[in-house]
Write a structure and sequence with these properties.
Oligomer: single chain
Number of strands: 12
Strand order of the largest sheet: 1-2-8-5-3
Helix content: 40-55%
Largest sheet: 5 strands, mixed
Low-confidence stretches: none
Length: 448
């Protein structure tokens, strides 16, 4: 027996739905068929699970029965064998090598860079100015990741790097196509050709930095220095090759800054639409910071700021879905998933389940108060994934999100602009510009 699901009366209908309207398609599956459903893309069975217990089975309890989904595997053309795409022993070895770069002490030092870049961004804005907030957050988080990863200032290259990243995001409809491998191998499509040209430019920059670090052998206190110095003490005792360094730094560089930028943009979008929540955030910032610039030490002292960010990532999760490919028959809840089936779980859908999130479309940071968090299953909320493949940069991302939000909201109030729809590409971007005006908050910041 298989779960219920829609019939594929029109060839290609389900494929096109996943390519061009995945959020509404998966939401409709959950509403019509419940926690488990199955459909086909051609001969390929695809299982969709929406209940937190099933999410736990896929990502944690039965994770050894799966590898990454086919669409993400196809991003190897960009990310190589980085942590996001590698499998098996290679992934375990790379994670052991990279883990020290994300230890708490290191992340605390990165926090100073986060605030510095946030201050630089907010000082560029002018009272009453209209901004494309999504674009501003991309530039800001790019500056943070470049400084913390490479100890480099990339302001002059920000637009070029941003264009390369956009080209990758726009490839999502192609990556889920069954013939994606063919198209990616022969870049006759203009979109692929443009991206390959931009990627080659990024590769030249990254390899030049790696070569310079190898030659000077100087620890610059950044992530790249940590990755170069890392040795696999639990394994073969070796370190990373230049190719492995390239793949890991490209993964962190692109995936890290993209997801945090989206999280911040959607957070500011929600604050501009929820005046009382924005006022409560300002009250916390004014009380805790007393007019001074935030510091890494303030991060644990800003619980409401973190709750605002968490609630934003519930409604607009930067990673909106997770795909897995079954390497053996595996039991998920009441259902047996056969070998070679695709399995999907979706933060977008599970984060809106009214059984665990009453009035789910309402923006309410108090859902993340300690008692409220204990009242629901842990995997009702999984913006960073779960299990052994959980995002290695989760702690980095939380600190970055909270400190940047505090730094920007301390100085500026964001005025509501036109409504923006989400665009489900590889990440959940705004569809088009996210235009808002900024108003300076009087008396909120000392001149010291």
């Amino acid at each position: 027996m298989v779960p219920p699901g829609p019939r594929n009366w029109i060839p290609g209908r389900h494929l096109r739905a996943l390519q061009y309207r995945p959020l509404s398609f998966l939401t409709a599956l959950s509403r019509e068929y419940g926690d488990a459903s199955m459909f086909r893309i051609g001969p390929q069975p695809v299982f969709f699970f929406a209940h937190p217990d099933q999410v736990r089975d896929v990502l944690i309890a039965r994770n050894a029965s799966f590898i990454k989904g086919l669409a993400l595997q196809r991003t190897k053309v960009v990310l190589g064998e980085g942590l996001l795409t590698s499998e098996g022993e290679l992934h375990k070895r790379q994670r052991r090598l990279a883990q020290p770069a994300f230890h708490r002490e290191r992340i605390q030092r990165y926090g100073e860079v986060m605030v510095e870049k946030g201050v630089r961004a907010r000082e560029r804005w002018r009272d009453g100015e209209e901004l494309d907030v999504a674009h501003e957050m991309m530039r800001l988080t790019l500056a943070v990741v470049a400084q913390t990863l490479f100890d480099a200032d990339v302001d002059d290259e920000a637009d070029e790097i941003g264009d390369a990243l956009t080209q990758l995001m726009l490839m999502f409809p192609l990556l889920v196509h069954p013939l994606a491998q063919f198209f990616l191998r022969f870049p006759v499509i203009p979109q692929i050709w443009r991206f390959r040209r931009a990627l080659a430019r990024l590769d030249r920059t990254i390899y030049a930095i790696i070569e310079e670090r190898r030659r000077t052998n100087v620890d610059r206190g950044d992530l790249l220095s940590m990755l170069i110095a890392a040795t696999d003490v639990e394994g073969d005792g070796g370190g990373m090759s230049d190719l492995q360094l390239r793949d890991e730094t490209m993964t962190i560089f692109l995936a890290g800054h993209e997801t945090t930028a989206n999280a911040l943009a959607w957070t500011l979008y929600q604050l501009a639409r929820n005046a009382e929540i924005e006022r409560e955030l300002h009250r916390e910032l004014d009380s805790v910071l007393a007019g001074r610039t935030p510091s890494p030490a303030d991060y644990p002292r800003l619980p409401y700021t973190e709750m605002v960010l968490a609630e934003s990532m519930r409604l607009y999760p930067p990673a909106w879905g997770v795909g897995r490919f079954a390497v053996e028959d595996v039991r998920i809840g009441d259902w047996t998933v056969p070998r070679r089936a695709l399995v999907l779980v979706s933060q977008w859908v599970t984060h809106r389940d009214p059984r665990f999130w009453p009035d789910p479309e309402r923006f309410d940071p108090l859902r993340f108060a300690p008692d409220a968090k204990l009242s629901r299953p842990k995997t009702a909320y999984f913006p960073f994934g779960g299990g052994p493949r959980i995002c290695i940069g989760e702690s980095f991302a939380w600190m970055e999100g909270v400190l940047l939000l505090a730094t920007l909201a301390q100085r500026w109030k964001f005025e509501r602009g036109p409504d923006v729809d989400p665009h489900a590409l590889i990440t959940l971007r705004p569809h088009g510009a996210m235009r808002m005006s900024v108003t300076r908050r009087s008396g909120s910041l000392s001149r010291a």
